[in-house]
Amino acid sequence: MANTRAQGRITAPVQKAALVVAATFLLVGVLGFVPGITTDFDTMSFAGHHSDAMLLGIFQVSVLHNLVHLLFGAVGLAMARSALGARNYLIGGGLIYLLLWVYGLVIDETSSANFVPLNNADDWLHLALGVAMIGLGVALGRSLTTTGTATPR
Fold first, then answer.
1. Which residues sit opposite 150 in a β-bridge?
2. What's the total number of domains in the chain?
């Protein structure tokens, strides 16, 4: 069996995919705090649906929403250090995003339950992210054993 952590480097495809996903979440989290990239930045609230701030003018964001993206990215970077962790991050994170998609569909966007906040664009992005992350985790993590090493193909 080939080791997927040669000298602490990210070598397995599933690790590389998790690293890209995690870095993307970090980037999105940072961009959510950048005026201009986030429109109506001055209306951003900590949490709740009252924030009119929109990342790229499309996705409703708040301080909490941006912090969640940053945390999700940081967790992904840590988990990408092993192939098994990377697979678990992609599949587990994908499941979380599918749950967020369903949550966004069933709550009223103007209710206090919309504390992140989520809008229609967020909902459909969450569906795409969930499906893509699970797909990457399953497809690229297929050759892993329970020890987190890749089996030769």
1. 2, 144
2. 1
Contact criterion met (CB below 8 Å) for 119 and 125: no
Q: Could you tell me the residue range of the domain that residue 70 belongs to?
A: 12-141
pLDDT at 17 over 90: yes
Give the Cβ contact number of residue 44 at 10 Å.
Answer: 21
pTM of the model: 0.85
* C-alpha separations of 21 from 28, 45, 87, 104, 109 in Å: 11, 26, 12, 22, 27
CA angle (103 as vertex; 100, 107 as ends), nearest 5: 145
User: What are the helix (H) ranges across the chain?
Assistant: 13-31, 63-79, 83-106, 120-141
Is 2 part of any domain?
no
Residue with tokens 């497809």: 139
> What phi and psi, each to the nearest 5 degrees, are found at residue 59?
-100, 120
